[in-house]
Structure formats: C-alpha cells, structure tokens
C-alpha cells in the first residue's frame, strides 16, 4: 500500500472515525450522543472493511458490465468485503435502532438521558 | 482355691497393719503440727476415737445412691491402691495383688476413689462439695504433670514399669536409691507428692481449718467414718508407693515405717512452713519450676 | 436423519411466520414456537444419538451451491450435535418456562426468543468466520430484545449497557475478521486452522482481535460488569437462557477457534480464565442478590471453562471430557438455579428460606448447588478429578491451586445460600406461586444432572467401577420419604444390616475394624431414631448417604472411588448436621472445612497418580513425585475430618447443635472416616521427611498430643453439655492421631482400640446427654442439675461413659492408657507422652463437670416432673454399655483381634497375652483380675458401710448443712456455672480462641477483598466500556509486548 493511495487514506480515515466513535462512547454522558458515537464506531469499521477490499484501478464486481466478461478476476476489486460491509451495515443499523429504543425507554422511565443517572445496578 | 484364700488373708493382714499405722501416723502428725504451732494438740490416738465416734453416730441420712456409695468408692480406691502395691520387697506375704497391674495401673487407680467420692459428694447437692471437687481436680491436673514426667524418667532409667523391678534395682546400697541415681526425677515427683498429700500449701481442696468445705462437707456418721478410714489407708499407700519408687522400698516393716514416716515429714514440714496457695496459684506453680524439673529429668535420661 | 439445516429453516420459518400472527393468537403462536424448538431439539438430539450410538461421520452442509471458501458452510459433528442439543433444549424448556411472560408480550416475544436460539445454533455449527459474526450479532440483538421486554428501569439500563458492550465487542470482532480475511483471502475457519498462527506478524494481530472478542463475549474478569447487570436484572428465565445458552455457545466458539492461538496465548487464556474464576467467586462472597450471585457464579464457571481450554495442552486428550462434564453441569445447574430464582422471586438470598414451602424445589436447589460445586454423583465431579490428575501429570501445580481455591470460594457462598434456604425463619415471608410450566423445566434439568452424572461416570475409565448401589439405596429413600419415621427407620436398619452381612466376608484387616464401627455403629445409633414421631422427612436419605460414603471408603480399591465415597459421605453428613435448630453457621463451616480438606486430598491423589499405570489405592505406596507433599496433603485432608488442632473449629458447633441421634453419628462414627484415611495413608506411605530431615509423622505426633491437650482443656471450659462432648471428641481424636503417629505396634493398638471404644463411649454419652436435652430443652449444664433422681438410666449411661472416657481402671478405657504408656516408652516420645497423660487428667475435669452439673447437685424446680429419656434413646445406650462392660472384664476380646490385624504391619513389640494377662516389654496388666479385685473390695466395703449405716433416712438435695443457714434456692445453690473459674484464671490463656479468631480473620479478609474488588462495577456503562478497552490493551501487551 502506498502512503497517499486512496485505500491507505480511507484506512486511516476509517480508524480515525472509529476512534472518534470510541471517544464519543467513552466521554459523552448523553445517551443519544453515545449512540451516535457507536454509529461512528460502526461506520469507521465499515470504511476499514471497504478500504481493505479495494484494489487500485479495478472496478466494482458487478458482473453484467460488458468489459468484465473476460478475465474477470483480475479486473474487479475483491467482492467479499463489499458483501461483508453490506451485512455489517444492516447489522449496525439493527443495533443502532435497538439502542435508540433503549434510549427512548430509558428516557420514558426517568426523563433523563444522562448515563450517569442509570447506575442503580452495581457491585 | 487355696492360694486365693491365702492371698486374701495376707491382704487383710497388710490392710490391718497399714490401717493402724496410718491412723497413728495421722495422729502423730497432727501432734507435731500443733507443737510447731506452740499448741498442745490432740492425743496421738485421737483418730481412733474419732473413728469409733463416727461409726456409732445415730443420725443417718442419705441424699441418694451415689451419695451413699461415694465413700465406698473412696475406700475401695484406698484399699485397692494399697493392695495393688508390693508393700515389703521380697516378701510374698506382703506382695498382695501387685501381679495384676504395673506402675501405670497404680497411678491411674489412685483416681478411682477420688472420682467416685467426687460423684458421691456431688449428689449431696452441697455447693461446697462441688467447689472442693472442682479445686481438687484442677490442682491434680497440674500436679500430675511433673509426676508423670518423673515416672517416665524412672521407667526410662530402669527400663520397666514394674514396681518390683524398680525396687529391686535400688537394692544394695543407699546410693542405689532413685533419689540419688535420678535426682531430678525424684525432685519432680517429690514436689508433686506435696499436693498428693493434700497438705499446705496445697490444702485448699479440703481447707481443713475453715468451716467445712471440700468433698466431704455433707458426710457424717458412718459415711464419714469410711472416709476417715480411707484417710488413714490412702496416704499410707501413697507413701509406700513413693518409698518403692524413690527410696529403695522396704525389706521389712520397720524399714517401711521409718522411711514412710520421713517421707511424710517432707510434706508436713513444707506444709507447716508455707502458707496456702489458691488453686490458680498452685496450678501455675506446678506448671512452672516442677514442670521444668520434670522435663529436665526426661531430657537427662533420654540424652545422657 | 433430518438434515441440520432444518434447525435453521424451522426456527427461521416459524419466526417469520409468527410475524403474521395477530395479538389474539398468542397461544397458538406459543404452541407453534414450542413445536419449532422441540423439533430443533429433536434434530440435534437425533444427530447426537447418531454420532454416539452409530458412530456416524460428521457432515458438512454447504449453502448456495458452492464449496467454501466461496460460500458459507456449516458442520454437524459430534460436538456440534452436543452443543446444539444443549442450546435447543435450553431454548425449548426456556420457552416453556417463559410461557406466561411471552404470551403477554405476544408473538414478538417468540420471534425474538427463536432468533436468539437460532443465532446460537448457527454460531455453533458455522465454519465461516463472518457468518459467526453475523449470528453472534443476531443472538445478542435478540437477547437485548428479550431483555427490553421487561418494562422496568433497572432491566432497561442493564440492557443498554449490554448493548454498548456487545456492540463494541462485535466491532472488534469484525475488525479482526476483516483483517484475517485481508491476510488470507478466506473466511473459512478450517482454512484458518490449517494456517493457524497467532505468531505471524500482522495476521497475528487480526487473530488476536478475533480471539479477544470471543474472550470478551465470555465475560472475563474484570471486563464483565455489563454481564453481571444483565444477570441481575433480567427476567430469571432470560438470565437462564443467557447463562445456559449464550455462555455455552460462546464457549464452543472459543473451543472451535482455540487452535488459532499460540501456546503462549493459551496460557494467557488460562490466566484470564483463572482470574475470572477466582475473581468472580471472591466477589460473590459479599453478594446478597440471588440473581447477581448466580451471575458471579456463572461468570466464574465460564472462567473455569476458559482455563480448561487454555490448559488444553496439558490436559491432553482428556480436555474434552473435562470441559464437557463441567460445562454440562454448569449448563444444567445454572439454568435450574435461575429458573428457581424466578419462581421464588426474592431479592436477597436470606429470604430464600421461603423456598422450603416447596419441598420439590428445595431438593432441586440442593441438587443444583452440589452439581455446580462438583460433588458426586454429578458430572463435574469427574471432570474436576480428571482435570487435577492431568494437571499434576504435567507438573502444573499453580493451576491446581488456583482452580481449587476458586472452587472453594464458590462453595462458600453457595453453601451459605443453601444454608439460608434450609434454616432461616420463613414465617414472615410471603409464599410464592408454583406453576407447572415453571417447575417442569427445573425438574427435567434436575433429573438430568443425575442421569448425565451416571452417564459421565460410566464412560470414565476408572469411575465406572465404583459401586453406586449404596448411594442409590440412599437416594431411593427420597422416594419413600412420605412414610412414617419408624417404617423408614426399620428399612434403614435392615438395609444397613443386609449390606453389612453382604460385606462382612469381604472385609479384612483395618477394613473390618472400621467397617464394624461404621456399620454396626450406624445400626446401633439408628435404633435411637425410633424415638422420633411423624415422618422425619429428609433424615434417612442423608443418614444413609453418609453411611454409603463410609462404606465406600472401606470398599474403595481406587483413589477415585475413595474420593468419591469421601464426598458422598460429606454431603450426607452436611445435611444431617444442618438439621439441628441452630446448625446453620456450623454446617457451613463444616462444609467449608470439608471442601478445603477434600481439595487437598484431591491434589494429593492427583500428584500421587503421576506416572502410575492405574489409580489403585496401592499406588500410594510408591508415589513417584513429591511423596512428601502427597503425604502432607492427604494427611491434612484427613485431619479436617479428625478435627486436629487448627482444623477443629467447625466441630464443636456442628456436633453440639445436631439432633440427638445425629450427634453420635457424626461424632462417634463420622470422625473415624478421617482416622481410617490416616490409617490407610500411614500404611501405604509410611513416614515422609520434609527436606530429608524432619519426619512428618513426628510432627503429627506433636500435633496429636497438643490437640489432645487443647481439646480436653476447651472441653473443660464449656457450659454447653453437647459442646463439651464435641470438644472431648477433638481431644480423643488427638490421642488417636498421636497413637497412629507412634508407628509402632502398641501405638496402633491403642489408637485403633481407642477408635473402637471412642465410638462406644461417645455414642453412649451423646445419646444419654441428647436424651436429657430432649427432656429438659436446654443444653446449658448449669440450667440442669440433680437429674439423677429423674433420669437414673441416663445417669448410669453417662457414668459408664465417663469412666471409660477418662480411662479409669477397671473399665476398658484404661487399656488404652496402659498401652499408651508402654508405646511411649518404646518410642521414647516422653514429652509428647507427658502431654498425652496431662490431657488424660484434664479429661477428668470435664467428665466430672458433665456428670455433676447435669445429674448431681441441685434439682431445679422446673425439672421436678421431668421424665426419663425416651425408651428408644436408652436402648442403644444399654446395648453399648453391655459391650463396654464385656470389653472391660475381658479386654483381650478386643485387643487381641486388633493386635492380630496390626501384627503384619508392625510385627515388633506385640503384647504377650496369657489369658487376660498382658505383658509388654515394660510392664504387665491383667484386666480381669483387676476387675474382680476391685469389685470384691467394693462389695466388702459396701457391706461394711451398710452394716454400719442401716436404714439411713432419705433427704432431698436441698436439705443440706449450709453454715447454719438454709440455702436460698436450687439455682443459686447448684455450683455449676464457670465450674473451673480458678483453672481458667490459671491457664485460661491457653484456650483463648486464637485459632477461631485466625480463621475468622481469613474469612473476614476474603470478604473484605471481594467487597473491595467488586467496587469496580460501579454501574456506569461507560466504565464498563473502559474496562473492556483496558482489558484488550493489557491482554495485548501480555500476549505480544512481553510483559
């Protein structure tokens, strides 16, 4: 991988977003902001996945393109990470949605979104 | 059958001699004690009078069976102890039943009467009786320790627990006495002997000077008579035991009387010279120097 | 065979189908789900049966018509079949259990539940790493979904923390997976395993992320606060599914991916597991909420499983057996416990006393607790045994210590809980509702523990030869527990008598002596059981279980059979002891000491097995490695039962608070199990030297002597009659230990004969005093007094008992003393010997105190009408007295046979018998002649007294001379309280409870530690995430950074 290649940059960006996401989860007291942090964390992961599958100068693995009919394997980027990322996005969506449901329920119960107020269970 | 009858007759003879000796000894010692205290004292035959008096009393009450047989236990213990000892060395007549058990047995048997009596006293319901027993037992535990160590040292020295053999080993010269051949053990045992005789400073069990206290508190008349009889026999038996173990035994009655008299005097002199210990004091005292002497006796015989 | 894909198809299909169901069709949705889960269970069970019975080959399932790596593939092998069976069964019974709850939620609930089970199934079967990620996410989303159905704040907050944590963990997993793909171009696990290397740079990091994510899924200490919160707050039915289902599946994933790690990482894994196991059990000590406690236990158990995986290199081919037996035990027990907790619905473990309202659930609770800790006959017992043996064989002593320590800690809080449930007052507590659908799963799982326990033992190469019949008979008494006590008593006596008759010809040597103590002793003490009216529920199964264990000890040919019997005996005796009214804390400390001792024994047996070709008891005589340690471990293990000084603190309470006929069983009989152990050990191993110089047995001799003195001194200062007797047992057992330590003919003769007579006099005394306590309703001696008038028969029993105990001639106790003197002289242990004799004299103190304070002295007003002890309690006493008097008059009837047994082992120094005349190298003694002489003198003196003192007037105790005054009242006149005040003043310093204090300090310290550590779980979701992050970093550094 070259230093300023697109895949390298996206890899770095992906990690940055991931770290921002973790930072958000760890430092924000507002539950919604934590969920956003989590979303960022997820997105970062997704970018990393895509970055890893990218091969320079190759096209998307959509096989009905005319110029892909021959020597396919050398002309496309790795399709697997792309499939993976789609699945991961779906799952991430599910998790985020469920987290928001939790946030809503928590708010309904205690009328606050500060995570510090939900420490009834401990030790 | 004949031998058994003979044995029994011999035993009765021993018993008769020792009882009388014990009674007289008791009177004499009282007299000596009084004289040391600048009092006139009783007549030396006073114990006989007391005995007769007690047996002829007409007040006769009992608190129950154990109470009644308590003195029986006591006297059985005294007579038994005497009869299980070889009294006169080398004399088949006064060897009695010593064939039945060795030194270990004799040492344990001395508690037979004490504990039986304690039970009887307990049934009387008198707190002073129980108190006396409690004190006596506590003191005994401590006193036994130097004694046991001494006995063990003796057994190591003579390679036997057979009293005959121990006596036999001491014959020949006064220097063969255990007292001289194994002085540490002898000292430990003679210190224990003080409490065994129940004289001052270890006499808080019976506390004879005060109002009645101690196991016999509730006893009277013939029951007390039995106890008194034991008070003549039991100390005499113990004297004979110590004489056998430490002072070469006796080959005839004269020797026996002289030796036991002087052994007894040891406790009498100490008793007159020293004031009484409380029980906790006497326990601690026995667990001090006498115990150390006993341990030293063991170490000496084991390693030298 | 139904193809495994139908598991997925069925669950998925029904789950989707249920989406079409309306609100009103909840019941039919429920039935449909149950059907689906049942079908899934059927498929996996069918496969399991196929693998097990017909030895089928494992089958790959390919999807989408491609071979891997181009498609996802699943594997149904033997292990997958087992694990999916577990998951589906848990799902099925979980759904049954959750019936009402799910019905209320509606079809969504069923869908979520099935999603979870489906996810777990695929997690187990899949061979594709990304697929694994997807279904991990599915199952955790489904779990979070199930959690959120509980409309309560604590649950929702916990669920949110759970989501946060699992979200982060799966993100890390995903990263790892993707990088693994990046480096290898495959997602197929089998391909990875072919490459397998955490060692390869770069790729190794990717593998590390995958593995650490799986580790985190297993809730390692301390990054597991989120898991605990969910366990505590979720509905018990759901917690059961998480504990039994999710943890099981996650464990399997770890198992599957284990070869990816390097040996070094495996050690890290083992370390994580052990830290989790010990850490969570330590923190569990202070926990009072039942579900959170179960959470701690659950996490701890999974930690243990992780340790097993990490140590697989050392455990070798037994890894699977060990891991599975422990896993299945945990699976069954934890699900069962959570379910019970959901039925009871109490928020502190102290309120679990209410569980007694349902006998069935109480029994099941006990079953699960014992399953969890690894008592026989449950599966984990065999797993733990094998684990220790394998670890010892690989020299891994550190892990042995760690695992046993963790197990001990777990035992502490589980048995405390069990004790609360069994004993605390439950009158104030509201009762709970018992629904069949909630009880059914618990019953099924409870029954399964026995079935699988039996199965596991039957496939164990050594356990299968253990004789299970006695235990089965004992358990059969559970079924006839409804019968009246006298019927069961008769049956129990018959069973014992028959077994003894059957066993008798096979017994030889010391087995014969101890067999007689255990069996004849058992029968004699059982006779007293006729005194009990009603059903006496729960007594006979455990009494017989204890005896089954004791018999097993004698029958044992292998070390595992011995240990098995030992544990069975411990279980039985625990339940006997805890029957006493105030026994709860004492039974607990009994159990803890027993467990501690048992673990030492286990370690000892494990080390002894190293390099041996089999597990025969005879291997103890040629231990190849660390024989000194084996000896010490086993000896200390046995001494927890013989209650030697330092390990005695459980005894007084346990024996004193027990029921009237239980006290003699545990004091007179049970303690001899330890003696039997020591006898076996000493004979097999002989003496051992520490550092080539100090003889262990020499030290044990001192310990025995000091125990004898201290036990007797402490007995002398007791106010409680049964406690006095209990301490006296400590003392006598000290004698026995000393006698055995002499390692000579006479030493053993005295030790063994005292073992026999101790059975008799202690049973006699405990029964007699128990009979008194039965009538006067107090154990405090000073509250009694003068009872000789009311209970003459009991008095006579005690009289004989104490004379024998004190070793006074002419009764048979003296023989022991006499032999001792000779034995000591021959061994030249004079100082120890002097201590022994000192203790003998001290025994006079408490024996007199006992008989005086209870029977002599002043009769209390409230006892003037009290009756003699019950007839059936007197019967065994007089049987024993008869035998004792016979032995006293004819001592060689006891001593000669014992001498004969000892002679092959210690030929030198035997007694020379001529009739009743015994001659030793030092002295002689004739019991019969002495008996005659003493009795004759006694009779003569008695006659003399009667002649002189006829017709004495009988007066009451209160009619005494009292310094010319009348005594005030019996209470103040009975000299009994603090009877040896002066003695205490003199030497009381010796009996200050220093040892008890020390142990209490240890307990206190452990609890304080646990309490301190658990403060890291501060309830803040963000802290939990930080824990996870920090955990990853630290483990990374340890794995790669060369910490």
Automatic annotation (TrEMBL), chain A:
The record lists the membrane-crossing segments as 6-26, 35-55, 83-103
First-listed, main subcellular location of the protein, grouped into a coarse class: membrane
Show the Pfam families listed in the entry.
Answer: Oxidored_q2
Q: Which InterPro entries match?
A: CPA3_antiporter_subunitC, NUOK/Mnh_C1-like
Instruction: Give the membrane topology.
Output: Multi-pass membrane protein
Keyword list, A-Z:
Cell membrane, Membrane, Transmembrane, Transmembrane helix
List the subcellular locations: Cell membrane
Name the domain of life this protein comes from. Bacteria
Q: Which GO terms describe its cellular component?
A: plasma membrane
Q: Does the keyword tRNA processing apply?
A: no
Coiled-coil segments: none
Which PANTHER family does the record cross-reference, listed alphabetically?
A: ANTIPORTER SUBUNIT MNHC2-RELATED
Q: Which family does it belong to?
A: Belongs to the CPA3 antiporters (TC 2.A.63) subunit C family.
Protein name (record): Cation:proton antiporter
From TrEMBL, chain B:
Keyword field contains Heme: no
Give the range the annotation lists for the signal sequence: none
Q: Which GO terms describe its cellular component?
A: plasma membrane
Annotated membrane topology is:
Multi-pass membrane protein
Q: Which UniProt keywords apply?
A: Membrane, Transmembrane, Transmembrane helix
- Does this UniProt record's set of keywords contain Transmembrane? yes
A Pfam family found in this protein is NADHdh
Localization, UniProt = Membrane
The family database entries (InterPro entries) matched by this protein are listed as: ComplexI_Subunit1, NADH_UbQ_OxRdtase_su1/FPO
TM spans, by residue?
Answer: 6-29, 65-85, 105-122, 173-194, 256-274, 286-303
Which PANTHER family does this UniProt record tie to the protein? FORMATE HYDROGENLYASE SUBUNIT 4 (PTHR43359), FORMATE HYDROGENLYASE SUBUNIT 4-RELATED (PTHR43359:SF1)
Name the chain's protein: NADH dehydrogenase
Organism of provenance: Prolixibacter denitrificans
Automatic annotation (TrEMBL), chain C:
Q: Where in the cell is it found?
A: Cell membrane; Membrane
A Pfam family it matches? Proton_antipo_M
> Where does the NADH:quinone oxidoreductase/Mrp antiporter transmembrane domain lie?
127-407, 558-835
Please provide, alphabetically and separated by semicolons, the GO molecular function terms listed in this UniProt record. lyase activity
Q: Which residue spans traverse the membrane?
A: 6-22, 34-54, 81-99, 106-124, 130-150, 162-183, 195-216, 237-258, 264-282, 294-315, 321-340, 360-378, 398-418, 439-456, 462-479, 510-531, 590-609, 629-650, 662-684, 696-717, 724-742, 748-773, 793-809, 829-848, 869-890, 924-947, 1024-1042
Membrane topology type: Multi-pass membrane protein
Query: What's any one GO cellular component for it?
Result: plasma membrane
> To which protein family does this belong?
Belongs to the CPA3 antiporters (TC 2.A.63) subunit D family.
Q: What is this protein called?
A: Formate hydrogenlyase subunit 3/multisubunit Na+/H+ antiporter MnhD subunit
What organism, scientifically named, is this protein from? Prolixibacter denitrificans
């Amino acid at each position: 991988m070259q230093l300023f290649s697109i895949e390298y940059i996206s890899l770095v960006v992906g990690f940055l977003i991931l770290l921002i996401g973790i930072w958000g989860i760890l430092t924000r007291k507002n539950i919604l902001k934590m969920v956003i942090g989590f979303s960022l964390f997820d997105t970062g992961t997704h970018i990393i996945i895509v970055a890893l599958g990218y091969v320079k100068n190759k096209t998307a693995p959509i096989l009905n393109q005319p110029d892909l009919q021959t020597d396919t394997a050398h002309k496309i980027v790795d399709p697997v990470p792309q499939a993976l990322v789609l699945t991961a996005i779906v799952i991430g969506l599910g998790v985020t949605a469920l987290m928001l449901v939790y946030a809503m329920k928590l708010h309904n119960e205690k009328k606050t979104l500060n995570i510090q107020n939900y420490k009834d269970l401990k030790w | 059958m004949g031998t058994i009858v003979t044995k029994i007759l011999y035993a009765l003879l021993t018993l008769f001699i020792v009882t009388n000796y014990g009674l007289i000894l008791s009177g004499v010692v009282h007299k000596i004690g009084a004289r040391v205290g600048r009092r006139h004292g009783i007549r030396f035959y006073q114990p006989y009078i007391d005995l007769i008096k007690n047996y002829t009393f007409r007040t006769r009450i009992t608190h129950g069976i154990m109470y009644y047989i308590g003195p029986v236990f006591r006297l059985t213990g005294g007579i038994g102890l005497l009869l299980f000892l070889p009294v006169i060395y080398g004399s088949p007549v006064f060897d009695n039943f010593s064939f039945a058990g060795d030194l270990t047995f004799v040492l344990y048997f001395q508690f037979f009467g004490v504990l039986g009596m304690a039970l009887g006293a307990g049934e009387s319901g008198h707190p002073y009786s129980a108190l006396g027993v409690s004190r006596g037992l506590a003191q005994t535990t401590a006193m036994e320790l130097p004694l046991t160590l001494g006995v063990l040292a003796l057994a190591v020295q003579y390679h036997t627990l057979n009293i005959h053999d121990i006596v036999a080993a001491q014959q020949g010269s006064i220097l063969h006495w255990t007292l001289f051949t194994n002085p540490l053990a002898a000292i430990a045992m003679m210190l224990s002997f003080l409490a065994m005789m129940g004289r001052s400073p270890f006499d808080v069990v019976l506390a004879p000077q005060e109002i009645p206290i101690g196991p016999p508190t509730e006893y009277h008349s013939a029951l007390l008579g039995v106890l008194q009889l034991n008070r003549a026999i039991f100390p005499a038996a113990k004297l004979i035991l110590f004489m056998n173990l430490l002072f070469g035994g006796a080959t005839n009655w004269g020797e026996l009387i002289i030796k036991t008299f002087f052994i007894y005097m040891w406790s009498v002199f100490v008793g007159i010279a020293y004031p009484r210990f409380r029980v906790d004091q006497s326990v601690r005292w026995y667990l001090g120097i006498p115990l150390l002497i006993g341990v030293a006796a063991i170490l000496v015989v084991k390693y030298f | 065979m139904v193809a495994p894909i139908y598991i997925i198809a069925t669950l998925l299909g029904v789950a989707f189908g249920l989406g079409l169901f309306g609100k009103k069709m909840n019941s039919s949705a429920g039935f449909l789900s149950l059907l689906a889960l049942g079908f899934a269970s059927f498929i996996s069970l069918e496969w399991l049966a196929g693998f097990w019975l017909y030895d089928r080959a494992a089958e790959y399932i390919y999807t989408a018509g491609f071979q891997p790596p181009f498609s996802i593939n699943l594997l149904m092998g033997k292990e997958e079949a087992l694990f999916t069976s577990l998951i589906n069964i848990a799902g099925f019974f979980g759904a049954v259990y959750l019936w009402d709850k799910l019905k209320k939620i509606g079809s969504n609930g069923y869908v979520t539940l099935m999603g979870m089970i489906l996810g777990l199934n695929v997690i187990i079967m899949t061979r594709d790493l990304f697929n694994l990620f997807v279904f991990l996410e599915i199952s955790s989303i489904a779990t979070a979904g199930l959690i959120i159905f509980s409309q309560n704040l604590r649950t929702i907050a916990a669920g949110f923390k759970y989501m946060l944590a699992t979200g982060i963990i799966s993100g890390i997993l995903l990263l790892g997976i993707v990088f693994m793909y990046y480096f290898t171009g495959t997602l197929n696990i089998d391909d990875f395993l072919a490459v397998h290397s955490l060692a390869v740079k770069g790729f190794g990091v990717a593998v590390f992320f995958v593995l650490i994510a799986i580790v985190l899924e297993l809730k390692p200490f301390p990054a597991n606060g989120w898991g605990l919160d969910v366990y505590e707050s979720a509905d018990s039915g759901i917690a059961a599914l998480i504990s039994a289902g999710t943890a099981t599946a996650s464990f399997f994933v770890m198992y599957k991916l284990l070869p990816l790690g390097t040996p070094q990482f495996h050690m890290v894994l083992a370390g994580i597991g052990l830290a989790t196991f010990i850490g969570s059990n330590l923190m569990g000590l202070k926990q009072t909420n039942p579900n959170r406690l179960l959470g701690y236990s659950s996490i701890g158990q999974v930690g243990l499983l992780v340790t097993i995986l990490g140590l697989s290199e050392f455990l070798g081919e037994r890894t699977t057996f060990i891991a599975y037996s422990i896993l299945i035990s945990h699976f069954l027990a934890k699900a069962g416990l959570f379910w019970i907790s959901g039925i009871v619905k109490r928020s502190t473990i102290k309120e679990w006393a209410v569980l007694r309202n349902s006998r069935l659930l109480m029994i099941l609770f006990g079953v699960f607790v014992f399953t969890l800790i690894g008592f026989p006959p449950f599966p984990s017992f065999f797993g733990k045994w094998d684990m220790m043996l394998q670890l010892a064989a690989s020299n891994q002593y550190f892990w042995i210590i760690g695992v046993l320590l963790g197990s001990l800690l777990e035992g502490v809080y589980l048995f405390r809980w069990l004790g609360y449930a069994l004993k605390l007052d439950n009158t104030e507590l509201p009762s709970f509702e018992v629904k069949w659908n909630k009880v059914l799963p618990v019953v099924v799982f409870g029954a399964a523990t026995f079935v699988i326990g039996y199965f596991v033992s039957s496939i164990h190469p050594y356990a299968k030869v253990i004789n299970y019949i006695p235990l089965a008979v004992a358990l059969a008494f559970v079924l006839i527990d409804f019968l009246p006590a006298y019927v069961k008593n008769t049956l129990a006596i018959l069973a014992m008598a028959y077994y003894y008759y059957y066993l008798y010809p096979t017994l030889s040597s010391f087995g014969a002596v101890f067999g007689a103590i255990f069996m004849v002793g058992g029968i004699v003490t059982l006779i007293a059981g006729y005194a009990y009216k009603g059903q006496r529920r729960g007594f006979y199964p455990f009494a017989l279980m204890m005896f089954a264990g004791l018999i097993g000890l004698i029958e044992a040919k292998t070390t595992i059979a011995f240990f098995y019997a030992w544990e069975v005996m411990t279980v039985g005796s625990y339940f006997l002891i805890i029957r006493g009214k105030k026994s709860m804390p004492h039974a607990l400390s009994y159990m803890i000491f027993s467990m501690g001792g048992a673990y030492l024994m286990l370690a000892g047996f494990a080390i002894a097995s190293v390099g041996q070709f089999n597990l025969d008891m005879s291997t103890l005589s040629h231990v190849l490695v660390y024989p000194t340690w084996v000896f010490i471990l086993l000896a200390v293990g046995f001494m927890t039962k013989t209650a030697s000084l330092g390990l005695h603190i459980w005894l007084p309470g346990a024996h004193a608070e027990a029921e009237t006929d239980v006290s003699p069983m545990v004091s007179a009989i049970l303690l001899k199990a330890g003696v039997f152990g020591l006898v076996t050990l000493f004979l097999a191993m002989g003496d051992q030297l520490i550092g080539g110089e100090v003889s262990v047995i020499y030290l044990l001799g001192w310990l025995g002597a000091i125990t004898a003195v201290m036990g007797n001194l402490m007995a002398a200062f007791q106010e409680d009659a049964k406690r006095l007797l209990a301490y006296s047992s400590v003392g006598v057992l000290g004698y026995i230990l000393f006698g055995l330590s002499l390692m000579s003919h006479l030493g053993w003769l005295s030790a063994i004969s005292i073992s026999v007579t101790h059975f008799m006099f202690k049973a006699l005394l405990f029964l007699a005093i128990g009979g008194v306590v039965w009538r006067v309703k107090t154990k405090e001696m000073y509250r009694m007094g003068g009872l000789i008038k009311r209970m003459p028969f009991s008095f006579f029993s005690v009289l004989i008992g104490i004379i024998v105990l004190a070793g006074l001639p002419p009764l048979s106790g003296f023989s022991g003393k006499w032999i001792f003197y000779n034995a000591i002289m021959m061994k030249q242990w004079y100082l120890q010997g002097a201590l022994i004799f000192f203790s003998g004299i001290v025994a006079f103190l408490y024996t007199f105190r006992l008989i005086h304070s209870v029977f002599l002295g002043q009769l209390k007003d409230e006892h003037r009408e009290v009756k003699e002890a019950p007839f059936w309690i007197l019967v065994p006493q007089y049987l024993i007295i008869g035998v004792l008097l016979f032995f006293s008059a004819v001592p060689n009837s006891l001593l000669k046979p014992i001498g004969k047994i000892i002679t092959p082992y210690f030929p030198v120094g035997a007694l020379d018998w001529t009739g009743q005349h015994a001659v030793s190298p030092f002295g002689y003694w004739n019991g019969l002649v002495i008996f005659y002489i003493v009795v004759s003198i006694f009779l003569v003196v008695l006659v003399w007294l009667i002649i002189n003192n006829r017709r004495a007037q009988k007066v009451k105790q209160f009619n005494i001379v009292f310094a010319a005054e009348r005594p005030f009242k019996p209470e103040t006149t009975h000299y009994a309280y603090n009877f040896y005040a002066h003695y205490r003043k003199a030497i009381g310093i010796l009996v200050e409870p220093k040892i008890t204090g020390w142990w209490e300090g240890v307990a206190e310290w452990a609890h304080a530690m646990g309490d301190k550590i658990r403060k890291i779980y501060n309830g803040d979701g963000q802290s939990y995430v930080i824990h996870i992050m920090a955990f990853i970093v630290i483990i990374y550094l340890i794995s790669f950074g060369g910490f």
